[in-house]
């Protein structure tokens, strides 16, 4: 399974690495279980045309407000949006996983939900901040089921 992610504070990077470690363990137990390949997208990334299906992981950073009628504009993660737009990369995206802080109520995972709506792929799962071991297990299973 291929995962493209962007990480601003390091939370998404940490979660993605835990997910890849878990996938490696699961694959070692049973080769039917898919391994995970990670690709971090950042402002200095070379934009390329993706040729294999992938999942997108994106944290939520917005411009303030309540996430409904104001404060729903993406900031800091725009590079991922641009990468998905590049040469229609979004067409190979199997779904998006969002992260954020539940203290922000309606803004929680709003960026991932906006990506799903804009690009037409499913919002698959969410986790808070760096996630928990049970989040890793849960999200791995969701990705494995949607890795077609």
Descriptive key words:
single chain, alpha/beta, Rossmann fold, five-stranded parallel β-sheet, globular, EC 1.17.4.-, Flavoprotein-like_sf, oxidoreductase, oxidoreductase activity, acting on NAD(P)H
Fold and architecture overview:
Helix 1 crosses helix 4. Strand 3 (54-59), helix 2 and strand 4 (93-100) form a beta-alpha-beta unit. 34% of the residues lie in helices and 19% in strands. The chain has helices spanning 11-29, 78-85, 110-119, 133-146, and strands spanning 2-5, 37-40, 54-59, 93-100, 123-128. Strands 2-1-3-4-5 form a five-stranded parallel sheet, with helices on both faces. It has 148 residues and is an alpha/beta fold. The relative contact order is 0.20. It has a single domain (1-144), classed as 3-Layer(aba) Sandwich (Rossmann fold), CATH 3.40.50. The mean pLDDT is 92.
Low-confidence stretches: none
CATH topology, by name, is Rossmann fold
**CATH class, anyone?**
Alpha Beta
**If you compute it from the alpha carbons, what radius of gyration comes out, rounded to the nearest whole angstrom?**
15 Å
Overall 3D geometry? Answer: globular
Q: Quickly count the helices.
A: 4
* Lateral strand order in the biggest sheet: 2-1-3-4-5
Major pleated sheet:
5 strands, parallel
H/E element order = EHEEHEHEH
Strand content: 15-25%
The quaternary structure here is single chain
Structural class: alpha/beta
